[in-house]
Task: structure prediction
Amino acid sequence: MNGEVVTMHLVEKIRKGLCESLEEAVKKSIASGELPPVEIPDFYIEVPREKQHGDFAVNLAMMLAKPARNSPRKIAEILVDNLNTGTIPVESVEIAGPGFINFYINPLWVLEGIPAVLTEGENYGRVNLGKNKKAQVEFVSANPTGLLHMGNARGAALGDSLASILDFAGYEVQREYYINDAGKQIENFGTSLETRYFQQLGWNVDMPEDGYHGDDIIDTVKLFLDKYGDKYASAPEKDRRDALIEFALHEKKNAISNALSQFRVKYDVWFSEQSLHDEGKVAAVVEQLKERGCTYVQDGALWFRAADFGLEKDEVLLRQNGIPTYFTADAAYHMNKFQRGFNTVINIWGADHHGHVARMKSVISALGYDSEALQVVIMQLVRLYRGGEMVRMSKRTGQFITLEELVEEVGTDAARYFFIMRSADSHLDFDLDLAKSQTNENPVYYIQYAHARICSILRQPGVTEVKEKAEQVDISSLLYREAELALARRLVDFPEEISLAAGQMSPHRVARYLHEVAGLLHSFYNAYRVITSDSDLSAARVKLVKAARIVLQNGLNILGINAPEKM
RNA sequence: GCGCCAGUAGCUCAGUCGGACAGAGCGUCGGACUACGAAUCCGAAGGCCGGGGGUUCAAGUCCUCCCUGGCGCACCA
Result:
């Protein structure tokens, strides 16, 4: 939970200051007649890729070119003449290229951000983008009829990290798992369990073609036999199946929950689909849609007029036999989410469900809610590689790696990093050998090593006195070398990186950012010693690496990856 | 056929509201350990951003038409 007071961070402060100064400059220029009366366009202040283009650059003059009917460079000159940057330590301003205004800030400015890192500690990086609005992230939600696979694992890593990012960004976040414990697949599950039950009792029965063929349910049935023996063999079919289903669902849910907790994923809520049916919520959503005139009957089924909401075709709500479809239950589920007061509802879905997004949004609109409040992150599928060969994942051939096996084989840290380092909408090639390898080919250790390295420095003999001294030294008079400032520069970006990752719902941004911070730390480390004979300098550098450690720690924590003190 | 995602260095991928000379990791080649951890660092080579057309001061990014790969288009979930 984010209960801390979040202050404005350095980069944000400078951006805001420059922005206001520029707006003032436009107003002054208009007042003096140098510019015609124009509205201030929606310009932005960017950090140039090239260092030689300054610390911040502004495209305002180019955007004014057309409305002010003048050349961008001329407008830039006028603006610069009328510019007063006030308290911001601007060293120089230049007009460059097609009309950019580039700002050069005193190179030591970044050091002003370091004390905040140290005092905020584990809260450094928190921002108030969410303004305590309630957000829910629903992810994995795999059928409780089997074990979790690589695709689910990707969803778990993405969903959990995204939830942590949103929490850091100032949302009140809840993690939820939707248990599909109702409907036809559960009936099918019951039949499959019954078949395995009979087989275990030595009867000659065949598994239905569309049954659950996985070996895991054989184990489940064996557990059932341990508990109840053959007492259900002669029971009425319904009783037998119900008993098997209830037992198996409970067992599977626990297995899934355990695997996820090994993967460091913990849910706030496990939501049962069946409960929606039991409590009449599914029937209620059908009634609401009827009342709103969004339904009609055809061929004995009840349809939702999805086409009225821009979709290609309508959707069945109640089948000919009167049983609601999955879509109807899901509509009820989403309505329930909004009724629970969430302002933002995020679902992490596999690419094979993307067709469901528009349907869900349409029914949300039909029910009178804002469909924009539903955000769906679609993740592309995972391809598994082992020994340079693609491993075809299929339950039938047994080429199926479960989340538990993945954790066992490559470990949670590496697995999570590999899932998070790519954007969700890119196919993921998961190289098991690479994830396992403890070499420099493996990017996970690069970041963890940076953290361990800092810890190692802070463990050095004599560092205690340096740390005490660090309370007093003024780093801005001691740190000025390129590698020092480059590291500090990136550290003060952390809050903004959190905002961006939250806004774009992109955990991979955090992974890449941390990799960069680790790189800057390593470069600094190789260029200069932290502990030197100069105690003031040592103290200042201890402060810098401590700040780096905080950023690495917080970032890794968000991604659910350990920050080891030794490796 | 229609829709969604992807196509960027040898490989795997970033690229913010359209901005300046297109970035990283790995791999390749050449260097750096008698002081804090070499799982590291420094340097080099490597590009028709899938292709054509368009929009504009400016396009990897926006529009359009193609090509390739993945995934959808059920009274399944």
Notes: The two ends of chain A are 30 Å apart (CA to CA). Residues 1-5 of chain A have pLDDT under 50 and may be disordered. The longest strand of chain A covers residues 172-179.
